[in-house]
Specification:
The chain is 33% helix and 36% strand. The protein is an alpha+beta fold. The protein has a single domain, classed as Nuclear Transport Factor 2, Chain: A (Roll), CATH 3.10.450. A 6-stranded mixed sheet has the order 2-1-6-5-4-3. β5 and β6 form a beta hairpin. The longest helix has 17 residues. It is globular.
């Protein structure tokens, strides 16, 4: 009898990708996070200088992992736009890394992903409320 195995939709596959990406962030292994990107993939956060390629992507992840050793990233939702996906997340942690403030942060944002033919992130545009993040980091 054919049809016993249901084919996952592209959206379901991407939700699973998002969950595994979240797990990679929470693994505290920056290379795990970078592996979800194309070799020449990019991540730009709040209009800053993009991290280009897996080495820079891993360095970006490592900076958060070091600053917030207890960090927990949660996937809130995933939506599909025309040619992109929006991965919504919440980041919680205590800034106890090198030169840390000791303050807790709890903030949300999203990444807008453009995927490549291999099913990896080619381009990610990340956005979060930097003012709110800074306020929490400084304990105001």
């Amino acid at each position: 009898m054919s049809g016993c195995k249901s084919e996952k939709s592209e959206y379901d596959t991407m939700v699973e990708f998002g969950q595994k990406y979240t797990d990679a962030w929470n693994s505290k292994q920056p290379e795990n996070m970078a592996s979800f990107y194309a070799e020449d993939g990019t991540l730009t956060v709040n209009g800053g200088t993009p991290a280009v390629g897996r080495k820079q992507l891993a360095a970006t992840a490592q900076s958060y992992m070091e600053a917030f050793p207890d960090m927990i990233l949660t996937m809130d939702s995933l939506t599909k736009e025309k040619d992109t996906y929006r991965y919504y997340w919440t980041f919680k942690g205590t800034n106890t890394g090198p030169n840390g403030t000791g303050n807790k942060v709890d903030f949300s944002g999203f990444e807008e992903w453009t995927m490549n033919e291999q099913g990896l992130v080619q381009k990610s545009i990340g956005t979060y409320d930097a003012d709110e993040y800074t306020r929490q980091l400084e304990g105001n």
